[in-house]
Amino acid sequence: CIPLYNFSYIYNYLRASPRSFVDSFLDKKERRYNPNMSPYIPMSKWRKGSQWITLIRRHAEVIADDDVVFPVFKMFCKQSHNCIPDEHYVQTLLAMHDIEGELERRTITYTEWNQSATNMDKSSWHPVTFSYADAGAEQIKRIKDIDNVYYETEYRTEWCHNNSTQVPCFLFARKFSRGAAMRLLSEGVIYQFDASAIMDPTP
Protein backbone atom coordinates (compact mmCIF):
# COMPACT_ATOMS: atom_id res chain seq x y z
CA CYS A 1 0.00 0.00 0.00
CA ILE A 2 1.44 3.38 -1.00
CA PRO A 3 0.41 6.98 -0.30
CA LEU A 4 -0.61 8.92 -3.40
CA TYR A 5 0.07 12.29 -1.76
CA ASN A 6 2.37 13.73 0.85
CA PHE A 7 1.67 13.63 4.58
CA SER A 8 0.32 17.18 4.79
CA TYR A 9 -2.20 16.64 2.01
CA ILE A 10 -3.45 13.38 3.55
CA TYR A 11 -3.61 14.90 7.04
CA ASN A 12 -5.62 17.91 5.86
CA TYR A 13 -7.92 15.73 3.74
CA LEU A 14 -8.82 13.60 6.75
CA ARG A 15 -9.03 16.48 9.23
CA ALA A 16 -11.30 18.46 6.92
CA SER A 17 -13.98 15.78 7.02
CA PRO A 18 -16.52 15.47 9.86
CA ARG A 19 -17.32 11.97 8.60
CA SER A 20 -15.74 8.53 8.67
CA PHE A 21 -14.69 6.96 5.38
CA VAL A 22 -16.24 3.49 5.35
CA ASP A 23 -16.96 1.64 2.14
CA SER A 24 -20.39 0.17 2.89
CA PHE A 25 -23.06 -1.25 0.65
CA LEU A 26 -25.94 -3.71 0.53
CA ASP A 27 -25.07 -6.75 -1.58
CA LYS A 28 -28.34 -8.30 -2.69
CA LYS A 29 -26.54 -11.41 -3.95
CA GLU A 30 -24.68 -11.88 -0.70
CA ARG A 31 -24.43 -15.50 0.48
CA ARG A 32 -22.20 -14.87 3.47
CA TYR A 33 -25.01 -13.87 5.80
CA ASN A 34 -25.81 -16.65 8.25
CA PRO A 35 -29.57 -16.76 9.01
CA ASN A 36 -28.69 -17.88 12.54
CA MET A 37 -27.50 -14.32 13.19
CA SER A 38 -31.12 -13.18 13.28
CA PRO A 39 -32.67 -11.55 15.25
CA TYR A 40 -29.46 -10.09 16.71
CA ILE A 41 -28.31 -9.01 13.24
CA PRO A 42 -31.23 -8.78 10.79
CA MET A 43 -30.39 -9.34 7.15
CA SER A 44 -31.64 -5.82 6.38
CA LYS A 45 -28.63 -4.47 8.34
CA TRP A 46 -26.06 -6.80 6.75
CA ARG A 47 -23.43 -4.74 4.91
CA LYS A 48 -20.28 -5.36 2.94
CA GLY A 49 -17.27 -3.20 2.09
CA SER A 50 -13.54 -2.70 1.96
CA GLN A 51 -11.44 -3.44 5.03
CA TRP A 52 -9.63 -0.11 4.56
CA ILE A 53 -11.50 2.37 6.73
CA THR A 54 -10.87 5.71 8.45
CA LEU A 55 -12.94 6.56 11.53
CA ILE A 56 -13.73 9.70 13.46
CA ARG A 57 -13.49 9.34 17.23
CA ARG A 58 -17.22 8.83 17.87
CA HIS A 59 -17.47 5.97 15.41
CA ALA A 60 -14.27 4.40 16.73
CA GLU A 61 -15.85 4.46 20.20
CA VAL A 62 -18.95 2.66 18.86
CA ILE A 63 -16.70 -0.15 17.65
CA ALA A 64 -14.58 -0.25 20.80
CA ASP A 65 -17.69 -0.39 23.00
CA ASP A 66 -19.50 -3.06 20.99
CA ASP A 67 -20.49 -6.09 23.03
CA VAL A 68 -23.45 -7.23 20.91
CA VAL A 69 -22.52 -7.54 17.24
CA PHE A 70 -18.97 -8.85 17.65
CA PRO A 71 -20.02 -11.85 19.78
CA VAL A 72 -22.57 -12.79 17.09
CA PHE A 73 -19.88 -12.66 14.41
CA LYS A 74 -17.60 -14.72 16.63
CA MET A 75 -20.31 -17.32 17.17
CA PHE A 76 -21.55 -17.73 13.61
CA CYS A 77 -18.61 -16.77 11.35
CA LYS A 78 -16.79 -20.06 11.60
CA GLN A 79 -14.96 -22.22 9.08
CA SER A 80 -18.16 -24.07 8.17
CA HIS A 81 -19.80 -20.75 7.24
CA ASN A 82 -17.02 -18.19 6.84
CA CYS A 83 -18.68 -14.80 6.45
CA ILE A 84 -15.35 -12.98 5.87
CA PRO A 85 -15.85 -10.72 8.92
CA ASP A 86 -13.22 -8.13 7.95
CA GLU A 87 -15.43 -7.17 4.98
CA HIS A 88 -18.66 -7.06 6.99
CA TYR A 89 -18.23 -6.40 10.71
CA VAL A 90 -17.61 -2.63 10.85
CA GLN A 91 -20.09 -1.87 8.08
CA THR A 92 -22.81 -4.00 9.70
CA LEU A 93 -22.16 -2.60 13.18
CA LEU A 94 -22.50 1.00 11.98
CA ALA A 95 -25.69 0.09 10.10
CA MET A 96 -27.05 -1.46 13.31
CA HIS A 97 -26.46 1.88 15.05
CA ASP A 98 -28.24 3.75 12.21
CA ILE A 99 -25.29 6.05 11.58
CA GLU A 100 -24.67 5.34 7.90
CA GLY A 101 -25.84 8.88 7.20
CA GLU A 102 -22.75 10.12 9.06
CA LEU A 103 -20.38 8.28 6.72
CA GLU A 104 -18.65 8.93 3.45
CA ARG A 105 -19.61 5.50 2.15
CA ARG A 106 -16.40 4.89 0.25
CA THR A 107 -12.86 3.82 0.91
CA ILE A 108 -9.88 6.11 0.42
CA THR A 109 -7.64 3.19 -0.60
CA TYR A 110 -7.69 2.18 -4.27
CA THR A 111 -7.62 -1.49 -5.20
CA GLU A 112 -7.74 -2.88 -8.72
CA TRP A 113 -9.42 -6.26 -8.99
CA ASN A 114 -8.57 -9.05 -11.39
CA GLN A 115 -11.96 -9.82 -12.88
CA SER A 116 -10.90 -12.90 -14.81
CA ALA A 117 -13.82 -14.77 -13.27
CA THR A 118 -17.28 -14.45 -14.74
CA ASN A 119 -19.76 -12.03 -13.21
CA MET A 120 -21.61 -15.03 -11.81
CA ASP A 121 -18.52 -16.37 -10.07
CA LYS A 122 -16.62 -13.61 -8.32
CA SER A 123 -15.04 -15.94 -5.77
CA SER A 124 -11.77 -16.02 -7.70
CA TRP A 125 -11.44 -12.24 -7.94
CA HIS A 126 -8.30 -10.98 -6.26
CA PRO A 127 -6.44 -7.66 -5.99
CA VAL A 128 -3.93 -6.97 -8.73
CA THR A 129 -0.33 -6.40 -7.65
CA PHE A 130 1.28 -3.67 -9.74
CA SER A 131 4.77 -4.58 -10.87
CA TYR A 132 7.76 -2.36 -11.61
CA ALA A 133 6.78 -2.17 -15.29
CA ASP A 134 3.25 -0.86 -14.78
CA ALA A 135 3.81 1.47 -11.83
CA GLY A 136 4.62 4.64 -13.69
CA ALA A 137 3.32 8.19 -13.55
CA GLU A 138 0.50 7.49 -16.01
CA GLN A 139 -0.94 4.73 -13.84
CA ILE A 140 -0.82 6.90 -10.71
CA LYS A 141 -2.45 9.81 -12.53
CA ARG A 142 -5.27 7.54 -13.67
CA ILE A 143 -5.98 6.53 -10.06
CA LYS A 144 -5.77 10.10 -8.78
CA ASP A 145 -8.18 11.35 -11.43
CA ILE A 146 -11.00 9.11 -10.19
CA ASP A 147 -13.73 11.34 -8.71
CA ASN A 148 -16.61 8.88 -8.22
CA VAL A 149 -17.31 5.25 -7.39
CA TYR A 150 -20.28 3.30 -8.75
CA TYR A 151 -21.97 0.68 -6.55
CA GLU A 152 -23.68 -1.73 -8.91
CA THR A 153 -25.84 -3.51 -6.34
CA GLU A 154 -27.37 -0.24 -5.11
CA TYR A 155 -27.36 1.59 -8.45
CA ARG A 156 -25.58 4.31 -6.54
CA THR A 157 -22.81 6.65 -7.66
CA GLU A 158 -20.77 7.98 -4.76
CA TRP A 159 -19.22 11.29 -5.78
CA CYS A 160 -16.12 12.02 -3.78
CA HIS A 161 -16.55 15.10 -1.61
CA ASN A 162 -14.84 16.34 1.49
CA ASN A 163 -16.55 19.04 3.53
CA SER A 164 -18.68 19.93 0.45
CA THR A 165 -15.60 20.20 -1.78
CA GLN A 166 -15.08 17.77 -4.67
CA VAL A 167 -11.82 15.91 -4.12
CA PRO A 168 -9.93 12.91 -5.50
CA CYS A 169 -11.44 9.68 -4.21
CA PHE A 170 -8.24 7.97 -3.14
CA LEU A 171 -5.33 8.86 -0.85
CA PHE A 172 -3.67 5.45 -0.97
CA ALA A 173 -3.38 2.62 -3.48
CA ARG A 174 -2.59 -1.09 -3.36
CA LYS A 175 -1.08 -3.53 -4.14
CA PHE A 176 2.41 -2.62 -5.31
CA SER A 177 5.45 -4.83 -5.39
CA ARG A 178 8.55 -3.60 -3.60
CA GLY A 179 10.16 -2.81 -6.95
CA ALA A 180 7.12 -0.83 -8.06
CA ALA A 181 7.10 1.21 -4.85
CA MET A 182 10.81 1.96 -5.17
CA ARG A 183 10.31 3.10 -8.76
CA LEU A 184 7.56 5.52 -7.75
CA LEU A 185 9.74 6.97 -5.00
CA SER A 186 12.89 7.22 -7.09
CA GLU A 187 11.09 8.87 -10.01
CA GLY A 188 9.32 11.34 -7.71
CA VAL A 189 5.87 10.28 -8.89
CA ILE A 190 4.39 10.77 -5.42
CA TYR A 191 4.88 13.47 -2.75
CA GLN A 192 4.55 16.37 -5.20
CA PHE A 193 1.24 17.88 -4.14
CA ASP A 194 0.29 21.03 -2.28
CA ALA A 195 -1.67 20.44 0.94
CA SER A 196 -3.50 23.76 0.46
CA ALA A 197 -5.58 22.02 -2.22
CA ILE A 198 -7.72 20.75 0.67
CA MET A 199 -9.56 23.44 2.60
CA ASP A 200 -8.78 24.14 6.23
CA PRO A 201 -11.67 22.72 8.30
CA THR A 202 -11.76 25.79 10.58
CA PRO A 203 -15.09 27.71 10.41
UniProtKB/TrEMBL annotation:
- Pfam families with a match to the protein in the record: Branch (PF02485)
This entry's Gene Ontology molecular function terms read: glycosyltransferase activity
Statement: the UniProt record of this protein carries the keyword Glycosyltransferase: yes
In which compartments does the protein localize?
Answer: Membrane
Spell out the GO cellular component terms annotated for this protein, sorted alphabetically and separated by semicolons: membrane
Keywords, A to Z, come to: Glycoprotein, Glycosyltransferase, Membrane, Transferase
- Membrane topology term: Single-pass type II membrane protein
Which segment of the chain is annotated as a signal peptide? Answer: none
Which InterPro entries does the record match to this protein?
A: BC10-like (IPR044174), Glyco_trans_14 (IPR003406)
Instruction: Reply yes or no: does the keyword Oxidoreductase apply.
Output: no
The record's section on PANTHER family has: ACETYLGLUCOSAMINYLTRANSFERASE (PTHR31042:SF118), CORE-2/I-BRANCHING BETA-1,6-N-ACETYLGLUCOSAMINYLTRANSFERASE FAMILY PROTEIN-RELATED (PTHR31042)
Q: What is this protein called?
A: Uncharacterized protein LOC104216634
